[in-house]
């Protein structure tokens, strides 16, 4: 591992100043202040005994003063990064972030590869903690870094994470742009279809679906389904079927969505990816809640199985979605108090996320408040939903939220507010009201 060779004197001076010491603090009966000054300016080479004394005073090893390297310290830093990786796998995202940050504080001791590993870990920890702005900033720096090789596994990991973060932050345009550009890059390299290709495409499907571009989402899904079974791992193939199921559900093809989700579950069940297994169960439970005769027992089993795993290893956005799904189920089985608790917890997890998702969760909370016999609270929450929708990107999803808002206003007996919300739902679907005719239209035939 290469380290800067700036000389004993310069390293001594840098460490002394970093620790807030002056030259007098390094002096002793055997080492004068003037001798310290001569060492720092490179005019004297200290003996081993003097080096040991100086190293002790500035808190480093003799090896570091001599060479700029400290193998024991480097080993400790590498262990911190390894601990961060393990903590991330176990869902201890705060501990992981701390470990990566502590290692990066001593970045000059680390190789470039270890620094990149810690920075990627730090970015993913930010994402899991719901700190999406920090995650996006760091991921963007890494993705654009000249050292990031297009087509490499690391490059694909960064592209996928960036798409995901922008999507969860509600910036669907950028999430799609990054995904499309990355797919074009992979196609242009002429590489055989790999897991990275399949997983990137799967993420892009989800971004299209979130933006409401269902036609494009289905085109990509159909393309990947045709090749994923031959080229992808079980995780990659499962991800394709998973996102294809979401597209089918958005297009009202419920039976197809259920079949695709069941296929994805079978593939994921044969892997050790507990997070993906849990999230798929939440998808399946939500699809079942949308059927004509929902099986409450089966839905509850799926949610109960998935909930602990998502809390342990899911991102903040995934945890919020799970809590919202539990709120929806509580409303299905007439338990509004339970729904209020789950919806409130979900809102606490999406403070910095997609405003449309926050609005959707608030609408569930308003419904629960109304069913719990508190119409005033429900109206207050609905007004907060309307304010939040005003900051959200217009998609089919915001149209669905407006429709839910309208139905609740109608149930509250507020016809004017209900009609306005129904109009907003139609507008978000691209169906604005007809212009008012201010004068009679006449025509004559010659």
UniProtKB/TrEMBL annotation:
Cross-referenced PANTHER family: HTH-TYPE TRANSCRIPTIONAL REGULATOR, METHYLPHOSPHONATE SYNTHASE
Keyword Hydrolase: no
Keyword DNA-binding: yes
Protein name stated in the entry: Helix-turn-helix transcriptional regulator
Keyword set, alphabetical order: DNA-binding
InterPro entries for the chain: Cro/C1-type_HTH, Lambda_DNA-bd_dom_sf, TPR-like_helical_dom_sf, TPR_rpt, TransReg_Diox_bact_type
PROSITE patterns membership: HTH_CROC1
Residue stretches making up the HTH cro/C1-type domain: 12-65
One Pfam family cited in the UniProt record for this chain: TPR_6
